[in-house]
Design a protein that fits this description.
Length: 220
């Protein structure tokens, strides 16, 4: 069984999130911890909302936006460790032990060796020196396999692939499709549509759409 969810970078407001919980097909939302390349208009907009959203019933896909492919001077093991510690510090303000924190990797295709070094250090630091579990959110196209083949610890994957159905025009398929439909068989979450406008209970939001193996993907 799979479950539908959504994510958007900046927290839209309590009333909007309540409206989207009531009578909609969604079980979980992306929850942004921030990070050096977080692009939302308010870096802390999500951080004090975990208790409220959990009270409504939402599950979470916990995301940390680290340095990206163009940030060559920051793609080092030392920076990966520092950013992992930052992610843990932010998550420890509310998320329990065992939560999966997903490192957001926006570049698709083949990654540079320095980017893999940064990612590997981030994953190892989360795995070896925290009470949390590491995950990676990335493109299905070569990227997930490349990262998976370069690491030596258990890591969960959430992958985006908007090139196969369900399309944005069929955003709430029933039953929810299996995340392996993204063409990464080991993915726990599949982001299948990006930057689409949807309206529920008279509230319109621009979101990315997901399907996951668990109603609470960061605890799966």
């Amino acid at each position: 069984m799979a479950y539908l969810g959504f994510d958007l970078m900046t927290y839209p407001g309590d009333s909007q999130m309540q409206s989207w919980w009531t009578g909609t097909p969604f079980h979980f939302c992306g929850f942004y911890l921030g990070g050096p390349k977080y692009g939302g208009s308010n870096p802390s907009s999500w951080l004090n909302k975990r208790t409220y959203l959990q009270g409504l019933g939402y599950g979470f896909l916990v995301l940390y936006v680290g340095y990206q492919a163009g940030d060559s001077s920051y793609l080092t093991a030392a920076q990966g460790i520092a950013d992992a510690n930052d992610a843990v510090s932010k998550a420890s303000a509310g998320f329990p032990n065992g939560t999966i924190i997903y490192l957001d990797v926006e570049q698709g295709g083949t990654l540079s060796s320095s980017f893999l070094t940064y990612i590997d250090a981030w994953i190892n630091q989360i795995n070896d020196y925290s009470s949390y579990r590491p995950g990676v959110y990335c493109s299905y196209y070569q990227t997930a396999d490349q990262i998976n083949n370069s690491i030596h610890v258990n890591c969960q994957f959430a992958c985006f692939n908007i090139n196969v159905p369900p399309s944005p025009g069929n955003d709430t398929p029933s039953p929810a499709p299996d995340p392996s439909g993204c063409k990464v068989m080991y993915a726990l979450d599949w982001q299948y549509a990006q930057n689409v406008y949807r309206t529920y209970n008279n509230v319109q939001l621009q979101v990315d759409l997901n399907t996951a193996n668990y109603a609470n993907p960061s605890f799966g």
